[in-house]
Design goal:
Number of strands: 12
CATH superfamily of the largest domain: Immunoglobulins
Length: 180
């Protein structure tokens, strides 16, 4: 047990010394001392009985390269006056049933646009350009749903507001328990 304690103590010393060296300025001093309990300490300021340890650290300044200016692109905004997920509603809770999904958009989806859905940041595998469908069999949990219209000609996009909803499952111990 004592050997293990000494090994761990040495690792702590090496880790602290490494951290201090990593944050040290060029040719900065580190002070080392041992307290009455035999614990070795390191600091960047002197303490009674401390031994000065000189560190010569080469610091290479970070070189920031300015971003390469890109040619200005004109993206035509997608002209939908209304683009809202109306089902599920915000913070709605479902109890194991399929989750109905519906997007209201005005005007209707243009032929040059594509509609995509994401659930928790992952694309949903739905039929192309569906504004309504159901999500059956979702496991218990919290979900974020987003609809995105993409203009295939200009590359412009329009995202709906994220709708958070929850799915609960009946308890295994009481399958008839259905909280409201």
């Amino acid at each position: 047990m004592a050997l293990c304690s000494r090994i761990m103590h040495r690792w702590r010393i090496l880790i602290v010394a490494g951290l201090l060296a990593a944050n040290a300025c060029p040719a900065s001093a580190i002070y080392k001392w041992t307290d009455a309990a035999g614990v070795v300490h390191f600091a960047d300021h002197p303490a009674p009985g401390a031994q000065k340890i000189q560190l010569d650290v080469d610091v290479v300044p970070a070189v920031r390269t300015p971003p390469i200016p890109s040619s200005p692109q004109t993206v035509t905004p997608i002209p939908y006056a209304h683009f809202t997920i109306d089902s599920p509603t915000r913070e709605q809770t479902f109890f194991g049933e399929p989750v109905p999904v519906h997007l209201t958009m005005q005007p209707a989806l243009r032929p040059s646009d594509e509609l995509r859905w994401t659930l928790n940041g992952r694309p949903l595998d739905t039929e192309t350009n569906q504004v309504g469908f159901a999500l059956p069999g979702l496991p218990r949990g919290a979900y974020d749903l987003v609809a995105t219209a993409i203009d295939r000609e200009s590359g412009g996009t329009l995202n709906s507001a994220t709708v958070a909803f929850y799915v609960h499952r009946p308890s295994i111990l009481n399958p008839h328990h259905h909280p409201h």
